[in-house]
Design goal:
single chain, Endonuclease, Chain A, 18 strands, elongated
Length: 298
Amino acid sequence: MEKIYFSPGKECLNGIISTLKAAKKNIKICVFTISDNRIAELIKEMFEKGIDVKIISDNDKRFDKGADVNYLSKLGIPTKIDKTKAHMHHKFAVIDDKISITGSYNWTRSAEKYNYENVIITDSKAIATAYINEFTKLWHLFVAIKNNKLEVGKSYKFKVLGKELDKYKRKFYQLQCPFGKTHLIPHSPFKEYNFKTGDSINGMVDSICGQGNMLIEPEHPTYKIGQTYDFDFVGRGKRITKANKEIHVLIVTGDQERECTVLPNNEFQKSEKFKPETLACKVVRIKRGRLYLENMNS
């Protein structure tokens, strides 16, 4: 399979996008620059789907106006740059170690709109092998962009390294952040998440405690904040607030059969006559695996 595209026009861009979208395992990108946000957002999407993405680019071009290499690196995508006065001027990518994208086309809007460029896409094994060898050589030769600060409120990809016990025999999951650092989260609140060693998971930095320790909230396997779901109605009860006030609550369970409570919206919902099979509730927060819900039933 050999395909050749030319610009100006969208032929080259569409060829690159369709080939990147078809990736199943990995994408190796070695290009002078990336400033076409349509390509950059697709790279982000593929990375977040669990595709193993690596980028090599030029050390100077990443500071150009509109350049996306630093942005992609900050997402946690492993990215390396040259450390020379010359340029890293390649324009190739290899998808799943077998499909090669090459040609004169820079991954920029100017290349699509104005320049006379070409893109070649081929499944030649010999070409893919040659580009993989070049990529591997440069990967060992060049230096990584350092982004070693996780920010509160932002989500990142973490790799599950396994479980460990602390000196008090408490069980924790070991997570590796995109910058290579190891973080621990307690096992008990997330045991129903069924993490396995080697899994790639999304996690949000909830807060940073003393001594730089981070509280990381893994993405719930079922529920998303802001979405409404039907929960099984279990019954009603009472609880004491922080102000030492007794209030009525409705008890529901979700897919992991962990009980949650919501406030009734009216007097009828407090009564024994209110016995729905399910209760529509919006997920407003998830903390240490626990769902905080809003009753959506009038």
